[in-house]
Amino acid sequence: MTDNTTGKSRRAFLKGAAMTGVGLAAGQANAASPDPLITEVQPWASGLGDGVDAAPYGMPIEYEDDVVRRNVEWLTADTISSINFTPIHALDGTITPQGCAFERHHSGAIELKKEDYRLMINGMVDQPLVFTYADLERFPRENHVYFCECAANTGMEWAGAQLNGAQFTHGMIHNMEYTGVPLRTLLEEAGYDTAGKWVYVEGADASSNGRSIPMEKALDDVLVAFKANGEALRKEHGYPVRLVVPGWEGNMWVKWIRRIEVANAPVESREETSKYTDVLANGVARKWTWEMDAKSVVTSPSPQAPISHGKGPLVISGLAWSGRGAIKRVDVSVDGGKTWQTARLAKPGEKMALTRFYLDTEWNGEEMLLQSRAMDETGYVQPTKAQLREVRGLNSIYHNNCIQTWLVRANGEAENVEVS
Amino acid sequence: MTDNTTGKSRRAFLKGAAMTGVGLAAGQANAASPDPLITEVQPWASGLGDGVDAAPYGMPIEYEDDVVRRNVEWLTADTISSINFTPIHALDGTITPQGCAFERHHSGAIELKKEDYRLMINGMVDQPLVFTYADLERFPRENHVYFCECAANTGMEWAGAQLNGAQFTHGMIHNMEYTGVPLRTLLEEAGYDTAGKWVYVEGADASSNGRSIPMEKALDDVLVAFKANGEALRKEHGYPVRLVVPGWEGNMWVKWIRRIEVANAPVESREETSKYTDVLANGVARKWTWEMDAKSVVTSPSPQAPISHGKGPLVISGLAWSGRGAIKRVDVSVDGGKTWQTARLAKPGEKMALTRFYLDTEWNGEEMLLQSRAMDETGYVQPTKAQLREVRGLNSIYHNNCIQTWLVRANGEAENVEVS
Description:
28% strand, 7 helices, signal (chains A, B), sulfite oxidase activity (chains A, B), Ig_E-set (chains A, B), mainly beta, Immunoglobulin-like, Sulfite Oxidase, Chain A, domain 2, homodimer
């Protein structure tokens, strides 16, 4: 960007762009109407701030207290068997801090001390075993960043545009760096019978939330995890130990995991028959729909993150993911899917982890129908809502991975809409 | 690990290992003396837990309330110009949650609203510019995981073994995923004069903490960052905007950054003359010692994380990093550096980011002199304390990257010691 004739560089990216906060032509210092925040000594530059003992555990600053998990009161009968949503509209990058990572409980978040923790492996094994927390720490550990998405994420959108904000339409997802022991290691320790084609996993909470997992997956990449983003798990995410089932629906990531039974058939539990199955238009239910299909959403601008400036440079940003591997490409449309531009991925996609995408663009100040569509390494392309309905009908709750549309108005505000 | 003759698999990793919490031969279910935590219904399995509205922002569970930043009272005269330490002994993986990431202030952590935030670029530029926070959000962003290490980390160890715990000897470090705008982009926007070989950067706090940075580095990988691990920065880490200077000493990562001046010479400020220079044995001070040398430390076992079980399987774990690029290899010694074993890296090292290493070993129950040594992609090998002292003498405070030794006793307790 250097102009070699003058020895100067200049991008003038914001030159002539709409005015922002200080009322200057973007970014320019203005001698004629000086900004007191520049010309005057401010209290924070002339006094002392907080000492290092102010907070042993640091919390977000008060000005960010709207960046929190939120539930939707009318969605569930009570808060015990309920859900809240990650504020994805206000986050950037890919890591989700534990403090704002969504929760989903079937009988509430239980309090279970490490000393009281036990994990049993039984069924078709050479030797049934019971592990304490301290036992688990003696096995070789792995670290992996994975997304966890509730199968019901975006579920309210089957029938139409319901919830106004990316937090509520797509916020049943989080993405953390897990540390744990491969389930394979523990199954080998117990001496699993290779005739056992399934494991049945259950949690220590009252719901138990039992699920059947094919042995092939159990031996592949499932983790018995005790840390997320370096720290102990939060209570609401299964402290002290939860299952991590990469790419598969969040319901299978059993929290407070207490038992793993090796079996030769699935249990067909409540959570995999009357729940977490998808009734098609003809009344037949799809089951064993474990993998989360490739999906994406624009997080900014979005209904909770409107454009606060006028036309000119605009960063459109969002998240993409796939339960079948790495994200390869994300396209963005500003005209409801008529034309598409390929977004920039902040980093090459990683398997079963969130990918951040950006489209650095110029906004003409006119209304947009904003969409994104993800493509994963299998070649799968995220479908439109119409395409998804054609195959699945309108009865489903789970596994809605359709392209999301935000109508962005000329004033920068956005809302959740359907396009035909 | 499958035994094809029986159709069973068995690792028996913990078989015969010392007993742990439940008083069983590791992990084995014991019918003779049943564990009531297995045989009886527990309260958490028969009642309801907390609902999803219990905490909009989730905090660590009460049982983890010792996993916090701590300061050392006698180290500084007050807490305003002071330091606290990341509890690295209790963390795993590589990401440091903001809530437990160390703080270092020169005049306290200030409170600065996004609306009040201004960033000036002036000096040898075509057009001096003042950016608001909203302006910054309109430039293309990047995401990178980087470590930030205070130059004084391990500084108390020059003279001898001083502080008893990895948190205190090596806890002036954190590792986060940053989102921000490359400084290069903003310098280009202002039209920097290519004759300007330096930038001088200062913060909005009373100390201003001004530092000179070579233009080559400023144009390379420095970020003007506003998010860490997805969220807004914590107040104590520079909310709303800080500088990220990958691989270079933490003091240069100016918090609450308010001004960047393009200049043809360094300022030689307080923070780069009387402070953050290293007086050698002959009285001459090394200066411009920006890069953090390759370093590592065993975080577990360590004085704050003793071995809680007897002999048998033991996971030795720690962190390694280099300001000059990626970590290539980490070796671990249990005999004070006489013999070394190569540790397993949880992932291939990434540039200027923490790398987690593990040595999955068998402990014979005897005393160990535990050490780790890091090697980076430049071929540099972390030195012993004796080697470092030979070159640098004993006057230094900063840039102590020597090999750390923990004496682990037969009872599992550990302490900070020196070996000759």
